Amino acid sequence: ISWNSTQMCDLQGKPIGMMCIGEDITARHAMERMKDEFISVVSHELRTPLTSIHGALGLLVSGIVQPQSEQGQRIIKIAAESTESLVRLVNDILELERLESGKIDLIKKIVQVQEIMLKAIELVQLIANRAGIILEVTNQNLEFYGDCDRIVQVLTNLLTNAIKFSERGSRVWLDVVQQSDQILFVVQDQGRGIPSDKLETIFERFHQVDASDSRRKGGTGLGLAICRNIVEQHGGKIWAESIYGKGSNFFFTIPLVKADEINN
Ligand code: ADP
After folding, report:
1. Does the beta carbon of 165 sit less than 6 angstroms from any atom of ligand 1?
2. How far, in Å, is the centroid of ligand 1 from the Cα of 197?
3. pTM to 2 decimals?
């Protein structure tokens, strides 16, 4: 508690007492600490691609390296990739901030599970083909009340991760089942897996299993935090299970559509 005191006087200026106001600043301190931590992580994440763009352009501008030379072309490619990752990072930061502060309204309507599963598969098929991953889907005729595009976003995010962290020739499964009044979506891979002590922290912003994941795999460490926010805004839960070295399963639930929602 932070105390502020003021002396109180009567009309003649004679002290008659003290007024003390106490403010509970625990929450404010926690917010400030979170903000500081966020700024320090963000600036670190921004600095990495910015440093390589700066270095690359410096070499070209000074004439040390000719743009048409082999080395020049390599440097230009690095700068272009770093720019892409900066754009991805800034977009993800803004999106997560807007989701967390409630600035993005979900557009809810009755959604057919079959439809969104097909949409998500269509969006990742090319990435899977390029990575040599076989996608397997089982579908079911279920409905929920929610934001179609946002749930497709969660599915594509989980599928892209499953593909990204798997070896060529392995399989990724997308399944959906009904469990009492919930729809359970499962994305399963045979990839590198996740250590048990990281299974929860990976859903926090910027948490990656390996510090080099963003550089090597092109991620931002924000995808799962965005997924968690979207799923929770639908009244569902998201979690991961894994056998390290053998693969991972990502699960999320969305409540089944209720009768009164169908009538609306
Ligand atoms: P990123 O943009 O880095 O993929 P995410 O928030 O989507 O960010 O994931 C956070 C981290 O969780 C990843 O960097 C990776 O270390 C780990 N991860 C996520 N999905 C998988 C998976 N299917 N297999 C192994 N590790 C995963």
Report:
1. yes
2. 14
3. 0.82
